[in-house]
Amino acid sequence: MKALPYNAWIGALERGRFDLGLWFGERGPTPYEFYKSQMDAALVKAIGDKAVANFHRFESEPATRALRRFEASSDAAEQQRLGRELARIYVETAPSLPLFASPLWGVFNTGRISGFPSRFSPYAGSSPGAHSDNLQVLVAVKPR
User: Fold this and answer.
1) Which end of the chain has the lower number of beta carbons within 10 A, N or C?
2) What would the pLDDT profile of 89-108 be if each residue is shown by its tens digit?
3) CA pair distance 135, 143, nearest whole angstrom
4) Of 135, 139, 104, whose CA–CA distance to 118 is shortest?
5) Which residue did the predictor score with more confidence, 21 or 114?
């Protein structure tokens, strides 16, 4: 086996043309994003068609139903219950194998701006990458 150049590697993942792939899970302010990217039937594409997530093309009808209920609920207690249900389904079906917890890195300067996430106020990730909690950070930061 040999390493592929990035474009060939990501293309193989997106089109489902691999025996084993190394990738990261989606992140977000709730477990919803991760479990959606791992088990949602709505994301499953045929081998050869380009997928945006769920590259392993795994679908779980119980997980998909729980994801739809999660999307429809604004009740934090219900979302926590659904998150536990999704975790149980994930562990029982093992659609992917986590290798390690990936930290969310972030660097910022508080000299002129305050309100960034911190270990004392971990309301969002501090990295300005493609994360679903960027808006939370933009709303929370303020000039000093």
Assistant:
1) N
2) 999 999 888 887 766 677 78
3) 16
4) 104
5) 114
